C-alpha cells in the first residue's frame, strides 16, 4: 500500500479541509438567497443529496475541465483535443472549433491498434461491407455470425483455454457474469483494489463478499482459512463455492498481480481463481498472452480468465475463457449473452486481425516488434520518471504508471499545464481513488516513438517542478557525474 509522506498528508488534509470549510460557508449564504427566490421544482426531490451534491458543486465542478475532454481524431500516439470554454465559472463547458494536437498519454492503446493498421483496417472494412455495422440482435436470436464463432475460437486458443464466450462490453463481462457464476451460499474473496465492474458484479451475485489486502497473498490465506473454518453466516454450513477474484494489472496502480502465490493458496484451499486481464492481455508476456505467460503460471490453474478487447486490441467487448462445461453453462444463463446485442461484426474482425498480427500470422514480425516496443517504452519511461524524483507506482513491464499528486490543487494544475504544452494526461481523483491518493495515470503505447517519450518527459519534468510533485530527490545526470569525476581527478 502507498505510504504518504507526513508533510504531504498534512498539507493534503489542510487543503481538503479548506475547500470543505469555504464550501459550507458559501452554501450557508446560498440557502439565505434561495429563500428570496421561488423555485420551479417545488414538489420534486433533488437528484443529488448531502455530501454527494456538495462534492459535485464545490469540488468537482471547479476542475471538471480536466475530465471528459473530447477528441476529434483516432486515439493514436498523437491526437486532436477539442478546446472548451466556460462562461459560468466552470459549471458548464462549451466546445469550440479550435483543436490542439497533443501527445496522447491517456489512452489504453497499448499495441497501437486503435488507429489505422495496414493489416487490420482493410479486413475490418470488408467485414463491414459483408455483415454491416451491427447484428441488431442478441446472440441467441439472430446475432451470431461466423465471425463471432471464429472470434471465440481465436480467443480461446490465444489465452490457452478450451473455450471462450465474448460479450459486447468489457464492463458487463464482469458485472453480468459474476452473478451467474455464484449466488447465495457462496463466498467471493476480492482484492481490495479490484475494478468497479467486479465490485458491482459481486454485489449483484447475492454471495457473501470478503476483501483481502491489495496484492497480499498472506492476508488472502488468512481470510480463506478463517471463513472456511466459520462457514456460512448464522448456519455455519460449508460454503457452496468460493471464488477468489484478482486482476492481472491493476489499472489505478500499474501493479502486476502476485499470481503464482495466489494460485498456490487457492489450490491449497480448493477455491476457484477468477483472473481479470483487462489491462494485461495483449500488453505483457513474450507473445502478449498476459500475466500467466509473464509470471510462468499454467493457464490450467486459473479457472476463469476474463479480459477485454478495449485496450490492446483496439476494439470493444470482453471475453470469459474457461472449460467447455463452464462456457456452455454461461451461454444458457448469462444475461450479456441472452439479452444484450452481440458484438459488432467489424469490431469482432478487428480483434481477430489484431490477434493474428500479435501471433505473426499476418506473415510479418510486426506483432513481436510491438510487444518488444511497449515493454521497452514502459520500462524506459518509468525509470526516467523515477530518476527525476516523481513518486511512480507499479511494476516493470506494466504500461500503466501512476504519478502521485496527492494535493487537490495539484490535480488541475498538472493537467492544465501539461495540456498547454500539448501533452494530454489523465488525472484521477476521488471517488475513483481514495481521497488523499490523487494521481496522474500515464499509459504508454507501442505507437510512441522514443522522440515522443523524450518530449513527454521534458514537459512532465517542467510541470512537475512548477507544481511541486517531485517528492524524491532527483538522480544526478551523467554529465554532472562526469564533471564531478574530472574535478576530483
TrEMBL record:
GO cellular component: endoplasmic reticulum membrane; serine palmitoyltransferase complex
Transmembrane intervals: 6-25
CDD domains: KBL_like
Pathway given in the UniProt record: Sphingolipid metabolism; Lipid metabolism; sphingolipid metabolism
PROSITE patterns per record: AA_TRANSFER_CLASS_2
One Gene Ontology term from the biological process aspect of the record: ceramide biosynthetic process
GO terms, molecular function: pyridoxal phosphate binding; serine C-palmitoyltransferase activity
Membrane topology, from the record: Single-pass membrane protein
Cofactor: pyridoxal 5'-phosphate
Listed Pfam families: Aminotran_1_2
Record InterPro entries: Aminotrans_II_pyridoxalP_BS (IPR001917), Aminotransferase_I/II_large (IPR004839), AON_synthase_class-II (IPR050087), PyrdxlP-dep_Trfase (IPR015424), PyrdxlP-dep_Trfase_major (IPR015421), PyrdxlP-dep_Trfase_small (IPR015422)
UniProt subcellular location: Endoplasmic reticulum membrane
Keywords: Lipid metabolism, Membrane, Pyridoxal phosphate, Sphingolipid metabolism, Transferase, Transmembrane, Transmembrane helix
Domain of life: Eukaryota
Residues in Aminotransferase class I/classII large domain copies: 102-460
Family: Belongs to the class-II pyridoxal-phosphate-dependent aminotransferase family.
Record's protein name: Aminotransferase class I/classII large domain-containing protein
Biological source species: Anisodus tanguticus
